[in-house]
Design a protein that fits this description.
There is one protein chain. This protein has one domain: Spore Coat Polysaccharide Biosynthesis Protein SpsA, Chain A, CATH 3.90.550.10. It is α/β, with parallel strands linked by helices. The chain has six helices and seven strands, in the order E-H-H-E-E-H-E-H-E-E-H-E-H. Helix 1 crosses helix 2. The N and C termini lie far apart (33 Å). Strand 5 and strand 6 form a beta hairpin.
C-alpha cells in the first residue's frame, strides 16, 4: 500500500500564509490558502490505491471539505517541522510501504508529480521535489529514515541541500523531481497562482 501525508494548517484568519498576509492582508491570505487547499484536494482525489492522510496543525475538522471517507484525519505532533514530519512518517509507515509527504501551498503540483514520485520509489530510497526557495515541496521514502529530519534548519534556503546530504551520508539512492514554486509571498501568488 502507498501512503501520502498532507500537512495542512487549519484555515483560520490570521494564522495561515502569514508572510503573504504582510502585503495582502489576513483576509486575502486566508482566501488564497483556501484556494490552495481545494486545489490540493482535487489533485489527491485523482490518485487511486493510495492511503491519503491529512495532518492538521491545530485540530481535526470532521466537517471541512476533506471528505471523511476519502481521507484519514490526524493531528500533527508537537515539535519543530522535522519532528512533526518524522512522527507522521512513522505512523503512516505502520500500514504503508512507500510514503510521500506534501504541503498544501504548491499550485504547480499535479497528480502526475505524485504518481512519478511513487514510481521513483520502486528503484530509489528517497524521492525529493525541490522548491525554488531552497526547500522541498515533496519528500518520499521507501522506508522510514528518521535521520533526514534531524539537524535541519527548517524554513531556510538550506533545507533541500541539507536533506540531500543526509541521504547521501546514509548511501541512499535519491531521485529528484522537477523544481516547482510554492506560495510564500505576494509575488509568488502573482507569478504562479490561479
Amino acid at each position: 500500500m502507498k501512503g501520502i501525508i498532507v500537512f495542512v494548517k487549519n484555515p483560520e484568519l490570521g494564522k495561515v500564509k502569514t508572510r503573504l498576509a504582510i502585503s495582502m492582508g489576513d483576509k486575502k491570505a486566508l482566501e488564497i490558502y483556501n484556494k490552495l487547499l481545494a486545489y490540493t484536494k482535487e489533485i489527491l482525489l485523482q490518485l487511486s490505491n493510495v492511503k491519503k492522510c491529512i495532518y492538521y496543525s491545530s485540530f481535526i475538522d470532521r466537517k471541512d471539505d476533506w471528505i471523511n471517507d476519502q481521507f484519514e484525519k490526524h493531528i500533527q505532533s508537537k515539535g519543530d517541522l522535522g519532528e512533526r514530519m518524522n512522527n507522521a512518517f512513522s505512523e503512516v509507515f505502520d500500514s504503508c510501504e512507500h510514503v510521500i509527504i506534501i504541503g498544501s501551498d504548491c499550485p504547480q503540483l499535479t497528480a502526475s508529480h505524485l504518481n512519478d514520485a511513487f514510481e521513483s520509489l520502486k528503484n530509489h530510497n528517497v524521492v525529493i521535489g525541490p522548491s525554488q526557495d531552497g526547500g522541498y515541496y515533496l519528500l518520499g521514502m521507501d522506508k522510514h529514515y528518521p535521520e533526514l529530519f534531524q539537524g535541519i534548519e527548517w524554513s531556510t534556503n538550506t533545507v533541500l541541500s541539507a536533506t540531500i546530504q543526509k541521504a547521501k551520508d546514509k548511501h541512499l539512492k535519491i531521485s529528484e523531481l522537477e523544481t516547482l514554486s510554492d506560495i510564500d509571498f505576494e509575488e509568488d501568488w502573482i507569478k504562479y497562482g490561479f
